[in-house]
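Review session, final week

We close the course with one last complete record, chosen because it touches almost every idea we covered. It is Methyltransferase, a protein from Rhizobium oryziradicis with 260 residues. Go through it on your own first, then we will talk.
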Amino acid sequence: MPRETVDAFHRGGFHLVQPKGRGHRAGMDAMLLASMIDDDRPIRVVDLGAGAGGAGLAVASRLPQAHVTLVERSSEMLAYAKKTLALAENGHLSERVSLIAADVTLTGKARHAAGLLDNAFDHVIMNPPFNDGRDRPTPDSLKAEAHAMQGDLFEDWLRTAGAIVRPGGQLSLIARPQSIGEIIAACGKRLGGIEITLIHPREGESAIRLLLTAIKGSKARLAFRSPLFMHGADSHAFLPQVDDLSNGRLGYARIKNKVS
């Protein structure tokens, strides 16, 4: 049986080589994360913990002037990302996408040596591991590495994000709602102007994800945006806005785009 699949995203706008039956596979989370960059200028984007590259390639697919760097520490997932960039179907994107093999939690000279330089990017996106010790562990080691928290995860990842994004640049992340306190604390004085959207399966159901953006150097107050509902009351189909966001037809712009 094949150990990998080639999956189409953005209605065939790009394709992704992913492990089959194990490891982390990109889906709705990655597509919503990518939609949070709404910037049609020539920009440099870095996807921290990129896996096979789903979110980063979704940015490159929707924004033709974006140059994207995928950062991943797993050699196996990096191999999938390399296969993805080698696909003929991705030829229109591959020249604008590069790979860095590095641990997101590197600091100082080690981080610089890996290619993650201070103030180098306009946007940082991340879908960090969100399972904690109270979650049932998975026997799949590759998936566990992508999903399980280690140490003070948000502090470590947001320290790196705050260092490598330029002043006025944007952090975008997707996470579980239960992590909101840790994320806000980790943003600290590095990243302000936080905007949060809670994602609910349907009206009347509890939130399952949060989308968060923040701006380096902003002193604007935290803002909660209108919730995002994925489905209608009696349907499993995506509502039009969510379908547009997930298929690269729409960007999820910030309310306040300027640093204040």
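Two points worth writing down before the exam:
The longest strand covers residues 165-175.
The chain is about 30% helix and 25% strand.
Good luck, everyone.
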